[in-house]
């Protein structure tokens, strides 16, 4: 991993003017952190101030006072993080981890411009949106400018869950319809209204699918019902939605909305085939429903060439409602629903005021503006394209080398590595994926695994992620996959050739899975 010093390879070397600015910021941040590491443990140092308890005491207090359903990363051996900067996180011992999973710290952990914007506004004023204030209207103006012209009315919230809940209310009020079409394995939030439309959640618990919820197949061309060899996978998957609409209408039900992430994250880093959303929108509109694009995890330039992931599908596709959240405040709780004037007026006609105590407050809006400024000034969309293309190239070389890799898919800095036991059968390598993420953690690279079979390695780092970071991550992955495949191969030979004396038997459990 590139060391935390101003002399780190590639840092401060411009790849285009804006990328150079990002590199120089990273260099300055590392320089400051290097000084902090040297002074670790000194009285009054930030490292000392960040830690109130030992790691074991922190874990014990968490187990005592935090609900057991609130999980931690790497539960078998959690990391205690005390500070972060850019694309790096640091534990209580000062050990550095390359963050490849934190799409919340969008422009980099603790970006100085974002921190300064928050501090300055917090020193001046923070209040609710019932008072006039320039920040909320300026942020709404700037945010709307990134979207198609028809999407111009904003409702500010504090989380993606709040945003998606409000989006459902808008959709249902618009035509008075109730039913919602969602995708299999989808996750849209933790509120009750969203668990109801999130198969990722309700199928794991004791809840059953509600009668007003209709689940369409995920448009997955690698592992789904219609694959890459199908003549028209987009049309075939869209026709599944059409069938759902027809069946609902035949039962006397009416569709309020179709909701989907523009790229499915928890469902396994799924990129819908070109033309799918256009066809679905056509069918949904014909049924009197609206199309909700959930950009909570994938928006704000993560795909590189477009600010919003739904824009990859072309100018002829415009959702009726867009929700956004996680990266919006770079770690500060911010989210938003953006919709058309027509839908907003229908929502207002109910006579019920919409009010959110903290949504769009002056501090949040100042932070949101700072994030937009950094994305633009440091050309983070360009960086997502350049580094994402480079990372995808490196990973595809690994795919040619490693039998465990079944598929590499993604755009920009949103990439999935689908691990398989058998490339032809595409059997999910669930245990191996869990083993890999723990071994990567030992090499101080943070990854997670998700998808229906928890076998897809998710890569969605802060947008300041560099080519050096990408190379380091892939080198560590290469080493780990090599060891795992050797163990699996030896174990397989042991099982299939048990009576062959020249082959070494590998005991069961040789590959430890956490």
From TrEMBL:
First-level EC class: lyase
Keyword rRNA-binding belongs to the record: no
Catalyzed reactions per annotation: phosphoethanolamine + H2O = acetaldehyde + NH4(+) + phosphate
Subcellular location: Mitochondrion
Bias kind Basic residues: ranges: 505-514
GO CC field: mitochondrion
EC numbers for this chain: 4.2.3.2
Alphabetized Pfam families for the sequence: Aminotran_3
Superkingdom, taxonomy of origin: Eukaryota
Keyword Repeat tagged: no
Ranges for region Disordered: 1-23, 495-514
InterPro entries from the UniProt entry: Aminotrans_3, Aminotrans_3_PPA_site, PyrdxlP-dep_Trfase, PyrdxlP-dep_Trfase_major, PyrdxlP-dep_Trfase_small
Listed GO MF terms: ethanolamine-phosphate phospho-lyase activity; pyridoxal phosphate binding; transaminase activity
Family affiliation: Belongs to the class-III pyridoxal-phosphate-dependent aminotransferase family.
Quaternary structure note: Homotetramer.
Its job: Catalyzes the pyridoxal-phosphate-dependent breakdown of phosphoethanolamine, converting it to ammonia, inorganic phosphate and acetaldehyde.
Protein name: Ethanolamine-phosphate phospho-lyase
Record organism: Panthera pardus (Leopard)
Primary gene name: ETNPPL
């Amino acid at each position: 991993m590139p060391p935390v010093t101003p002399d780190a390879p590639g840092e401060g070397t411009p790849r285009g003017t804006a990328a150079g600015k990002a590199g120089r910021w990273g260099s300055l941040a590392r320089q400051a952190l290097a000084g902090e590491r040297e002074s670790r443990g000194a009285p009054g140092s930030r490292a000392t101030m960040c830690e109130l308890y030992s790691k074991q005491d922190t874990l014990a207090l968490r187990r005592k006072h935090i609900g057991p359903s609130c999980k931690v990363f790497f539960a078998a051996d959690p990391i205690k993080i005390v500070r972060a900067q850019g694309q790096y996180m640091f534990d209580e011992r000062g050990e550095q981890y390359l963050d490849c999973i934190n799409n919340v710290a969008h422009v980099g952990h603790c970006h100085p411009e974002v921190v300064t914007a928050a501090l300055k506004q917090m020193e001046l004023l923070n209040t609710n949106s019932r008072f006039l204030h320039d920040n909320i209207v300026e942020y709404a103006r700037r945010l709307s400018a990134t979207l198609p012209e028809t999407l111009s009315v904003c409702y500010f919230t504090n989380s993606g869950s709040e945003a998606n809940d409000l989006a459902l209310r808008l959709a249902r009020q618009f035509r008075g319809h109730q039913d919602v079409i969602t995708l299999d394995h989808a996750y849209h939030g933790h509120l009750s209204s969203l668990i109801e439309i999130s198969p990722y959640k309700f199928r794991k618990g004791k809840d059953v699918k509600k009668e007003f919820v209709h689940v369409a197949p995920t448009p997955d061309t690698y592992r789904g019902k219609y694959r890459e060899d199908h003549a028209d996978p987009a049309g075939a998957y869209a026709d599944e939605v059409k069938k759902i609409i027809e069946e609902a209408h035949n039962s006397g039900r009416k569709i309020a909305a179709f909701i989907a992430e523009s790229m499915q994250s928890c469902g396994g880093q799924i990129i819908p085939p070109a033309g799918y959303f256009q066809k679905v929108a056509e069918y949904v509109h014909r049924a009197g429903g609206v199309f909700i694009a959930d950009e909570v995890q994938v928006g704000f330039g993560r795909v590189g060439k477009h600010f919003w992931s739904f824009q990859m599908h072309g100018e002829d596709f415009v959702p009726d409602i867009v929700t956004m959240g996680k990266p919006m405040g770079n770690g500060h709780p911010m989210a938003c629903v953006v919709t058309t004037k027509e839908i907003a007026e229908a929502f207002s006609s109910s006579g019920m005021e919409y009010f959110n105590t903290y949504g769009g407050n002056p501090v949040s809006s100042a932070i949101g503006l700072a994030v937009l400024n950094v994305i633009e000034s440091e050309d983070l969309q360009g960086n997502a394209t350049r580094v994402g293309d480079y990372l995808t190239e490196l990973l595809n070389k690994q795919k040619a080398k490693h039998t465990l890799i079944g598929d590499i898919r993604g755009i920009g800095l949103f990439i999935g590595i689908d691990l398989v036991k058998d490339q032809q059968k595409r059997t999910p390598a669930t245990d191996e994926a869990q083993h890999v993420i723990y071994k990567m953690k030992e090499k101080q690279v943070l990854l997670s695994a998700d998808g229906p079979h928890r076998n897809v390695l998710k890569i969605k780092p802060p947008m300041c992620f560099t080519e050096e970071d990408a190379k380091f991550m892939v080198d560590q992955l290469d080493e780990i996959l090599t060891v795992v495949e050797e163990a699996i191969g030896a174990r397989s030979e042991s099982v299939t050739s048990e009576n062959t004396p020249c082959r070494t038997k590998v005991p069961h459990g040789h590959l430890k899975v956490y």
